[in-house]
Every structure is written in structure tokens, then in C-alpha cells.
Write a structure and sequence with these properties.
Length: 299
């Protein structure tokens, strides 16, 4: 590694080197990028605390010895340990929002985020001011709670997770966005600590990976908290709990929005009587469902 840090002097040098190393490795993308070039740009620019969109301005900037050593270490860990770049940098991006992450939480990725930033819950929520209270169950890093707070500026938001480590990360992100007065992190096994609470909107991107898929996850995903990924044999254990209990925590006109991965067919088979509304997101209409309180209690 010493010779590399002596030979590669500029950002252009390090970008070429990183892309070459990534292309010649078996690393898996999917935590914000889908190719070696974008991954290398992210790692290098964020690693140097430079805005990504200023790459061309700095391509021929020479790096200090400390900076070169840092990048060499990042690239080696990315390849040898399959450590996701988000963990190396302690940052992840979701719909243009930047979040602190580390190995204590799942790296943010959710179709629900698209809905929150693009008015995707209309016409069920006609005006943002109609939401006075909202909750995110199985929140992880708290990223969706921050998006809820922005989408519904009059609402008090609870973000809930069973992991005390996740709650610690939530509080970092809540503080980073200055939302301590409106967004509250609660350690709870789903609804267990929410007695007496009711919400106009409950969202959840719970664990939903089924057992066969868990066994085949790439190393990058195995470096994430497994508690946040797997949900029983069929991937629906957490969703069963949500469907069973959510109505008790919704206001009369409240709605529930849940992401379920590739489990749509299994879910419909398990609940043939529930009139799921499948919401359109960038990858189609198979991943996120919506139910009203009245639909839940009629099952």
C-alpha cells in the first residue's frame, strides 16, 4: 500500500485506480450506486469532504500523504472486507437527503421515501396539514422519520425500533436535521411501547427478506444488521404483526403504508380478504401497499 500512496498523487490518479480495482473485484453494488465509476466517485469525493458535483474542478488536485493513505485504506476495505461504502464514509443518501449511518443500522433504501417526497400519498392524504401525528415502525436510521417531518410539517413524528443501537443512530440524524422538538425515537418491539398512542399515518419498511434469500445475500448485505433484514421463512413475520395491530394505533381516518419487497403474491395469498392498494413507485406497483383503518378492522 505504501508504493500506491507514493505513486498516485491526484484525484484523477485515485479515481482511475479505484475504478480499476473495483472492476477487477467481486464487490456488489446496491447501496446507492450500481457501477464501479459512481462508487469510486462517491468514495473519493466524500472521503475527501468534497461535493460530488465538483469532481471536474478537482481532478488534478494533488492529495496530501494523509489523504492518500485514507483513500488507500477505504479502497482496500471495500474490496477485501466487502464493507459498504456508506459505512466507510458514515453517510448514505436517500431522495437527496444525507444521513449518518454505521454498522449499527441498515443502509437507507426505501420506496416509501419516493412517496413522501413526491406527494405519493395523495389522494389518501389530500393536504399535508391533515397529518398531525405519524409513526415509522422499524425505523432503523430514522431516515423515513426525517422525510415524514418534512412532508408533514405540522406533525409530531415517532420513529420506533427494537434496537437500542438503531435508536442511537436515529437521534444523530434527528439532531443533524434539527428535528428534536418534533421527531421522537422510541425503543420498542414494534407496537409494544406505544400503548395509548394513535397516528394519522403509520409507515413501515420492516424486515422482509425470506429465509432462502437471506442465505444467498451478497457479502455487502451480510455486513448489515441481520435483524433488520430477515423476517421468518416467508419474509412476512413483521408484516403479519403490523396488519394484526396497526388498526389499534390509527386514528379513525388513519392510513397504513408498508413496504414488503418481493412478497406481494405471498401476502395476497395470506390475506385474500384485504383490499390492498398497491402504490406506484419507480420499480412498479408490487412493493408498497396502503390500507385504511376501516379496511384493516373489517378483515
Amino acid at each position: 500500500m505504501t508504493s500506491i500512496t507514493q505513486e498516485l498523487l491526484t484525484i484523477r490518479d485515485w479515481l482511475r485506480y479505484a475504478v480499476s480495482r473495483f472492476e477487477n473485484s467481486d464487490i456488489f453494488y446496491g447501496h446507492g450506486t450500481d457501477n464501479a465509476y459512481d462508487e469510486a466517485v462517491w468514495l473519493i469525493m466524500s472521503g475527501l469532504h468534497l461535493p460530488h458535483d465538483t469532481l471536474n474542478n478537482f481532478l488534478d488536485a494533488r492529495l496530501t500523504t494523509e489523504e492518500r493513505t485514507k483513500l488507500a485504506g477505504f479502497i482496500e476495505k471495500r474490496i477485501s472486507n466487502h464493507t459498504p461504502t456508506a459505512y466507510l464514509l458514515n453517510e448514505s443518501w436517500l431522495q437527496g437527503y444525507k444521513f449518518f449511518v454505521d454498522e449499527r443500522v441498515l443502509i437507507p433504501r426505501s420506496f416509501i421515501a419516493e412517496l413522501l417526497v413526491n406527494d405519493g400519498l395523495q389522494p389518501w392524504i389530500e393536504y399535508p396539514e391533515l397529518v398531525n401525528s405519524a409513526a415509522d415502525i422499524c425505523t432503523g436510521s430514522g431516515c423515513l422519520g426525517v422525510l415524514l417531518a418534512d412532508a408533514y410539517p405540522d406533525a409530531e413524528i415517532d420513529v420506533i425500533d427494537i434496537s437500542p443501537d438503531a435508536i442511537d443512530v436515529c437521534n444523530i440524524n434527528i439532531a443533524n436535521y434539527g428535528l428534536q422538538d418534533r421527531v421522537h425515537a422510541i425503543k420498542s418491539d414494534m407496537f409494544s411501547a406505544l400503548k395509548g398512542k394513535q397516528y394519522d399515518l403509520i409507515i413501515s419498511n420492516p424486515p422482509y427478506v425470506d429465509a432462502p434469500s437471506m442465505a444467498e445475500l451478497p457479502a455487502e448485505y451480510r455486513n448489515e444488521p441481520q435483524l433488520a433484514l430477515g423476517s421468518g421463512t416467508a419474509g412476512l413475520d413483521h408484516t403479519h404483526t403490523i396488519l394484526r395491530e396497526a388498526a389499534n394505533y390509527l386514528t379513525d381516518d388513519g392510513i397504513l403504508v408498508v413496504e414488503i419487497g418481493h412478497n406481494r403474491d405471498a401476502l395476497i395469498e395470506a390475506y385474500p380478504e384485504l383490499p390492498f392498494t398497491w402504490l406506484e413507485v419507480s420499480s412498479g406497483d408490487e412493493f408498497v401497499f396502503l390500507l385504511t383503518k376501516s379496511q384493516l378492522i373489517s378483515q
